[in-house]
Specification:
heterodimer, A: mainly beta, OB fold (Dihydrolipoamide Acetyltransferase, E2P), five-stranded mixed β-barrel, 7 strands, 9% helix, B: alpha+beta, Lipocalin, two-stranded antiparallel ribbon, 6 helices
């Protein structure tokens, strides 16, 4: 399995600015770098914790030298995630997927989940920060 | 914003109604049609509502929708003292000197009545069941899986609590109900434990409070609610605390949404601390 962490510089200033408001009900996004997601290709899901306040995705990536890095990312609450197609079994240990993550500014391999691409091409997005610009992606169902 | 308060409360989120059916489909997100919903996560009933049945609220409802909170009247000196000691998430986010919010729900302490009616942690609404039982109506709420008993047998409410010879105060108080006409249920509640907050802001409510909920089933699918509070210990005058609507839940399913301290701790350790986010579980 190859390691390929690339920074995707795509953030739109406008989109990021729009986040400031009510995107996260309980904490601001100040801890995360919302300028560009980290892309974890061929990430192997090790755990999907369907918990509150935020579900957690844990996944490993391994580079060509065999070095493994373990990432943990939070996503929108279980309730709001259900509204955009998530379930407790949406990710299972062993799934190999591509994960997009807004990384923590602390530099630790943790962050805010953006979206996941499955090998069949389907995508599941975060309820709050799932758009490619970091904004909402829930189809306008929210008030 | 600086401190981020992460709450379990948050946590709690009301497990809304949801796309129950669609949520089962892993990749159904693209199929969501906003016109299927009356509000976020609330599926529209396929048929127009029929007339309200007579003296019958039984079933699963979701709300509050279209919630309006009335202006809070001036507090008494005693009420003001309590209020000033409370630091809501909002207050803390505006003033970092307050540190971490002391909202009791952050560590999963009970919301208590009537704050549980707000079901406010994240989604602003949740589901509940009206159910009949001997001499009473039960109201069960999916958030925290708690319930209330509304006695209809003509009994009175305690005039005092936590004094010798009187019953103990309760987080959800003591409630009695009566029907007014065929479609309105009036519930009175007293005997509240004073620890829970009245609302997200941290307003107090005392054990002397008398809270009246007036539910009117306007048709098959809709209930209108008005809640008034008379709490002379903490407020200078009674007021209408909330007006809101509730809607019939398609499929009548009921979820489980629980504030779980161990999950909050797990979140703290796995993500919040490595990210530099402060939590209440410190």
């Amino acid at each position: 399995m190859k390691m390929n962490i690339r920074k995707k510089a795509a953030a739109l200033i406008a989109g990021v600015t729009a986040l400031a408001a009510p995107t996260l009900a309980h904490h601001s996004g100040a801890a995360f770098d919302m300028s560009a997601p980290v892309v974890l290709e061929n990430a192997v899901v090790t755990e999907f914790l369907w918990v509150n306040p935020h579900p957690l995705i844990k996944a490993d990536i391994t580079d060509e030298q065999g070095n493994t890095q373990s990432w943990t990312m939070e996503m929108g609450s279980t309730v709001s995630s259900q509204l955009v197609g998530w379930t407790r079994t949406a990710l299972l240990p062993g799934d190999v997927v591509t994960l997009y993550v807004w990384p923590a500014k602390s530099g630790a391999p943790v962050g805010r989940f953006n979206k996941v691409e499955f090998d069949d091409g389907t995508v599941l997005r975060d309820s709050q920060r799932g758009a490619d610009d970091g904004g909402r992606s829930d189809g306008g169902l929210r008030q | 914003m600086k401190t981020l308060l992460r709450l379990l409360s948050v946590a709690l989120l009301v497990s809304l109604t949801t796309l129950a059916a669609r949520a089962q489909d892993l990749h159904a997100a693209e199929d969501v049609d906003p016109s299927d919903y009356i509000r976020e996560g609330i599926l529209r009933m396929p048929n127009p509502p029929g007339p309200a049945p007579v003296r019958d609220f039984s079933g699963v409802w979701v709300g509050p929708n279209n919630r309006e909170l009335g202006p809070v009247p001036p507090m008494t000196a005693a009420g003001q003292v309590v209020f000033e000691g409370r630091h809501s998430y909002g207050a803390v986010s505006r003033n970092a000197d307050l540190g971490v919010s002391n909202d009791p729900f952050i560590v999963c302490d009970p919301l208590g009545f009537p704050r549980n009616l707000l079901a406010h942690a994240v989604s602003s609404r949740g589901r509940f069941i009206f159910a009949d039982a001997p001499d009473r109506i039960l109201i069960a709420y999916e958030q925290q899986r708690i319930w209330r008993e509304i006695w209809l047998d003509g009994r009175g409410l305690p005039e005092a609590v936590d004094v010798r010879g009187a019953p103990e105060s309760r987080y959800y108080g003591y409630s009695v109900g009566r029907w007014e006409g065929d479609h309105t249920l009036v519930i009175e509640t007293t005997g509240l434990d004073e620890r829970p907050w009245l609302d997200e802001v941290g307003h107090p409510r005392s054990s002397e409070a008398r809270i009246v909920e007036r539910y009117t089933r306007t048709d098959e699918h809709n209930i209108e609610l008005t809640v008034t509070i008379d709490d002379p210990k903490f407020y200078m005058e009674p007021w209408t605390w909330m007006r809101a609507n509730f809607y019939w839940v398609l499929g009548q399913e009921f979820a489980e949404t629980i504030c779980i301290p161990s999950e909050g701790i797990q979140y703290r350790d796995a993500l919040a601390q490595p990210s530099g986010i402060r939590t209440e579980f410190e």
